[in-house]
Amino acid sequence: MRTQVAIIGAGPAGLMLGRILERAGVDAVILERRSAEYVLGRIRAGVLEQGSIELLDAVGVGERMHREGLVHDGVELSFDGDTHRLDFTSLINRHVMVYGQTEVTHDLMNARAASGATTIYEASDVRLLDFDGDGARVEYRKDGQTHVLECDFIAGCDGYHGVSRVSVPASALQTFERVYPFGWLGVLIDQPPVADELIYAHHERGFALCSMRSPARSRYYVQVAQSERVEDWSDDRFWDELRSRLNPATAEALKTGASIEKSIAPLRSFVAEPLRFGRLFLAGDAAHIVPPTGAKGLNLAMSDVKALGTALVEYYGEKSAAGIDNYSQTVLRRIWKAERFSWWMTSLLHVFPETGAFGRRIQRAEFDYLTGSHVAQQSLAENYTGLLD
Ligand code: APR
Q1: FAD-binding domain location, by residue (predicted)?
Q2: Catalytic residue (choose from 203, 288, 296, 306)
Q3: pTM, whole model, 2 decimals?
Q4: Which residues line ligand 1 (CB under 6 A)?
Q5: For the domain 180-266+350-385, what is the CATH superfamily, name and number?
Q6: Contact 32, 162 (CB under 8 A)
Q7: pLDDT digits (tens, 9 = 90+) for 372-386
Q8: Does domain 5-70+99-177+268-346 have CATH number 3.50.50.60?
Q9: For this structure, is 140 an active site residue?
Q10: DSSP reduced 3-state for 269
């Protein structure tokens, strides 16, 4: 089989790239290790920046998002129970949309199925070959047989644990990493959210986040030590811990019950450089990881593939390599700004083992500065709703 662009991974990055290319008449095949059902079963992020909303609209898959998604004009920050609402609309006239990554994936999958474009699910042992030469190849196993996909370019959209990044010789790649000494214990529950907007809370017992997926489905998180095991957290223990970190009125209003999903996610900042090696490009979680504080992971994946898709369309349409030549440099600038913001939000809101009394006073001062300064609030709002470039 031959295609113009072989896309590895059918997460939001791979599917969105496929959609951008398909709309411009560029042929692409997606190879995905898992089944479509498995991909759709993953519970992931849920906040879309304005740029991601616009991209979904631009490629014709925004209709259900506008119908079912929740427009959020602000967030609430809380520090030891003192709360402050940031109103994005009045601060910078922008907003975000709460619409689960699972739903975005679903909409992109449906659009791809309707277009007849090829996605090969349950493709195992994917191998990236000859991407430093004149024509690349991807080998994979499916139904007991080895297949070869010949292509002009490979887009590695296969997440942090994928095969694409590790196919690059280690000497050609520089990586930058910070692993945080804690994780987020997350619970999904079919109960209305405790508030209309997200609540980010710093408490001496640790960070907490009240989030949601819909008016009837809530997502809550508490910071836990790296050593914690999810089996040790009964629903009751989770709710008690969450309540203890919220302000009393919010804790009182919390609607609890049996969780429908519970898991612990580690927190990590990670960037690989560069993001192009000959005919191979990296995008999304394959290229970078941010801690979830700040809701940047999915949005960065969207901005990466918007840039990559545009560059590849330009390459085929206008016979210009300028876009693909600049891809790595262009997206890395944006990636590092999102890494900075995610690291900053994480540093402000979490309790670090080494923080100590001085560090907590500094965190409190940061919160007080933020709540007292219009300019500081504008800066947070600008970053949270998504930088323009
Ligand atoms: N071969 C083929 N597919 C693979 C391989 C492989 N060797 N390894 C991983 N994959 C697939 C995974 O099964 C997954 O479906 O690649 C896909 C990668 O998807 P995601 O992990 O969702 O990454 P990405 O599309 O970059 O999405 C961005 O933003 O909200 C954050 O972390 C969250 O997943 C989200 C990410």
Answers
A1: 2-342
A2: 296
A3: 0.96
A4: 8-14, 31-34, 39, 44-45, 101, 123, 126, 157-159, 162-163, 284-285, 297-298, 301
A5: D-Amino Acid Oxidase, subunit A, domain 2 (3.30.9.10)
A6: no
A7: 999 999 999 999 999
A8: yes
A9: no
A10: strand
